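Quick one - first record:
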Amino acid sequence: MEKRVVVTGMGIISPIGIGVDENWEAICQGKSGIGPITKFDTSDFVSKIAGEVKGFNPEDFIEKKEIKKMDIFIHYALAAGKMAIKNSQLKIDESNADRVGVLVGSGLGGLSTIEKYYDILQKHGPKKITPFFIPMLIVNLAPGQISIYFGARGPNSSIVTACATGNHSIGEALRIIQRGDADAMIAGGAESTITPLAVGGFSSMKALSTRNDEPEKASRPFEKDRDGFIMAEGAGILILEELECALKRKAEVYAEIIGFGCNADAYHISAPSPNGIGASRCMEIAMKDAGINYDEIDYVNAHGTSTPLNDMSETKAMKTVFKDHAKKLAVSSTKSMTGHLLGAAGGVEAVYSVLAIKHGVIPPTINYETPDPECDLDYVPNTPREAKVVTVMSNSFGFGGTNATLIFKKFTG
């Protein structure tokens, strides 16, 4: 019999808050975390807005001498990991260290560190490059630092699949536990690339919103006047545990993770496949894995990036998958509030999905003013909705046509 896997802890840092409680309060208020970029001078940039994390002090989570050895995305990963472990009350010691693993990914890793030290190299030469440069920026130092801090000696790796990274990381962590290679996994995504190169690069692709005069209204998934996504930063981490282990230590179980699907569009480097064929297949794979029918899904936390192509494509995909149930289905994009956290998006949205089950509240899609005829589902416009939420699907799709879908269910024993 396949092992059952449950969520026993959560940690989150996002543009709308630090910690689970602060994030959920902001979600229930429909609060936007988007504002003018403060990390660099945007005078020459067409997009001047982003979802920056506010009020984060790495010293609250990391020893002062260690902070300078890590890029910001690792600060976020380690901080969210600590929150999640504390929330789960999972003790890692000699009795279980070899059975606890870490799988945390990032889309672009330490890009800010690369930009900073390239500048130093050009101005001052190679002798001024810190010896910590490489460990600061490589993606697998996020799970590496978490494992070192907690002494977690189980499977340790990173997945890099652009905006699907967080979902792939959680899904593969699920598989590691199911096949018996670990009893618990610290899993999710982290990102901090609100930098000149990243913003300039995405702007050149015409992917970013240029609604600079109204930052809080710029992220408007599924809405007629959407004009691109908004870059954001942060981290979302879950503690996944094999059910019997969680019950044995009397852990609080927030939800069960029952399904994971992943596939490829095999179509284009950045555009989704026509009519969302890849996305619809991915959702179907996840439901087959979960052993459920389409009409058992209560809520979809959509990828919903606020780009014209993605939102239309995802809507078509959901109509294909959910058939007559599509019109009854609650769908929302929390990116309307947080912006797009790239490699951290899946992790952050997994936390929101689990919280929707826990509290019986469906997050809204804010800034929904003018309906788009191409996007005609129930996007839970502007205000959260109390509802019986038993089963939640969370979608993440990335450049390169990579797709990942997670399904969470209320735990009833």
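second record:
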Amino acid sequence: MLTDISIFKKRDFFKFAATYSLKIDQEYRPSTIRNYRATCKKLYQFVGENYLDTKKIDLDFLYDFENFLITQCHNSPNTIAENFKILSILISKAYHKFKLKETDNPFLNFKCSRKQTTREYLEPEELKKIIDLPLKETSIASMVRDIFIIECYTGLRISDILNLRWKNYSGKTISLKMQKTKKPIVIPLSEVALQTIELHRGIFDDDNDFIFKLINAEPNASQNELDKAIASGTVVVNTNLKRIAKKVGINKNISSHTGRHTFATLLISQGAGIYEVKELLGHSDVKLTQIYTHLLNKKKVSTIALLNTI
């Protein structure tokens, strides 16, 4: 019996997960690390004990945990899918660490799928309302509005815009390596984007200075410090965007990512090619870009349906 307990503790999944979490602390983005730790916390609550034998995580265990996430944590399908994605990675690495048979991995027979969420985007007239909204030039709301305009006119992610330096801007284009994919990209700028950026040029700005001085980080900060500052800055952007939308009467759940969706849908609705939009968004697969054509197709169907009311 003592031998069994010894083996049990050697295969302790919680201890392994905690060690792995520390290992990735300097490698992954803060949001990813938070997701890892949140998943482990829910698993710990589900088990209700201090240790968990990796071998006891079988198919029935996974289905019971899924039920716990639904009924006790009240998580959405996509949150549950993200939890299981993380758990799958941890289980695979734990099996390798403890030299367990890969054929016994319960995730070989378990599937948890994401549901397609609504991708909110703005119509041209809604975007114009935000652009035309009178705001105090030196206010946080004004800077957030300008950041959102750049997202709508470039398709850049909020993390890339907050980290945008003057050295990335040529006066005609933005050139950078994307934070999320590490893929280099060059984006030609429209007149609106150019004018918006130029509003933020200071007399003493250095090439390495941020264009939008919203995040609380030095230009030469470490990647870990920068990631944390960007995460905090994103919260500020999202909070102010919701207030701005309310002021102009837009009843949509707007976030920083709405600008990226708006950029793609507006281009495609104006006849832009799907592959050109793919490159501007920095997508690795055109299937990711095609979701925006599906959004517009749904809009066409709902528009035609108006004829039924005549």
